[in-house]
UniProtKB/TrEMBL annotation:
The active site is at 70 (proton donor), 211 (proton acceptor). It comes from Roseospira marina. It is an enzyme of class 5 (isomerase). GO terms for cellular component: cytosol. Pathway: Amino-acid biosynthesis; L-lysine biosynthesis via DAP pathway; DL-2,6-diaminopimelate from LL-2,6-diaminopimelate: step 1/1. One of its GO terms (molecular function) is diaminopimelate epimerase activity. The keyword Mitochondrion does not apply. This is Diaminopimelate epimerase. Keywords: Amino-acid biosynthesis, Cytoplasm, Isomerase, Lysine biosynthesis. One of its GO terms (biological process) is lysine biosynthetic process via diaminopimelate. The gene is dapF. Its EC number is 5.1.1.7. Signal peptide: none annotated. Its main location: cytoplasm.
Length: 273
């Protein structure tokens, strides 16, 4: 499946448990030898600690590491589970917390991604720093904004996001000592029409065509800096637009966007044990 070209292999392990090792995840995610994807996602039985959830969503980046959140994959898994149950809403457990999703159109899903976390220790940063004006020491991240959506993000505002060498500075920012859990890296231009143009270097996956949690982080960062008014904003990714609303009532971030299924079937070819 994919959300705006951010693509996933989604494996339903509810009926058939899967011992997913890092080595196996790496093989499946490998675009040369495996199926190939930005993230590998498992649908698992619900955990007792996730109240109201019908399933747990496990997420691994293409480098095999387990991560807490993935906005685009959450829309995809929510869509699958709502189709399966014939409902318009679904509650899913993730390592970042329990999220609630709703249908927002034929192939559109809205997810309440929960609160944005902005404390330095919530990102996390290696030391106490101002997350609204963060100097990472690598241009253009000399006055950046750090936000956690359950996973860590750092956002730099630039005049022209297209002109930036994301593949050059992305890896250095991702692994900078200031970010002990590494970080997802976003460059954002605030357009004259009020929309945000964002490009992303994802932790553990590199440049992707879209990042849902990254779009949430970019919108929160722009609103914290008062570059756009608090309320719904369109974030333009390489793969298309997402609508992000940082709700005033409870500080939750709502993400609305499309879901697409590329292929459904049996993953074999010797990949699974
Ligand atoms: N593509 C995702 C984010 C996936 C996880 C991220 N690379 C991380 O390491 O935190 C999204 O749509 O949010």
């Amino acid at each position: 499946m994919h959300g705006l070209g951010n693509d996933f292999v989604v494996i339903d392990t509810r009926a058939r448990p899967l011992a997913l090792t890092t080595a196996l995840a790496l093989r499946i995610a490998d675009r040369r030898e495996g199926v190939g994807c930005d993230q590998l996602v498992t649908i698992e039985p619900p955990r007792p600690e996730d109240p109201g959830s019908v399933a747990f969503m496990g997420i691994r980046n293409a480098d095999g590491c387990v991560v807490e959140a993935c906005g685009n994959a959450t829309r995809c898994v929510a869509h699958l589970l709502m189709e399966e149950a014939g409902t318009d809403t679904v509650t899913i457990g993730t390592l970042a917390g329990v999220v609630v999703a709703n249908r927002a159109g034929a192939d559109e899903v809205r997810v309440d991604m929960g609160p944005a976390r902005i404390g330095w220790d919530q990102i996390p940063l290696a030391e106490a720093r101002d997350t609204l004006h963060l100097d990472v020491g690598i241009a253009p991240f000399t006055d950046a904004v750090a936000v956690s959506m359950g996973n860590p993000h750092v956002v730099a505002f630039v005049c022209d996001a297209e002109a930036q060498g994301l593949a050059v500075f992305g890896p250095s920012v991702e692994r900078h000592a200031l970010f002990p859990a590494r970080v997802n890296v976003e460059i954002v231009t605030v357009r004259e029409d009020g929309r945000l143009r964002m490009r992303v270097w994802e932790r553990g996956s590199g440049i992707t065509r879209a990042c849902g949690t990254g779009a949430c982080a970019a919108a929160v960062a722009a609103m914290r800096r008062e570059l756009v008014p608090r309320g719904p904003v369109t974030v333009l990714l390489d793969g298309g637009p997402l609508t992000i609303d940082w709700r005033v009532a409870d500080d939750h971030v709502l993400m609305t966007g499309p879901v697409a299924t590329a292929f459904t079937g049996v993953l074999d070819g010797g990949l699974l044990p």
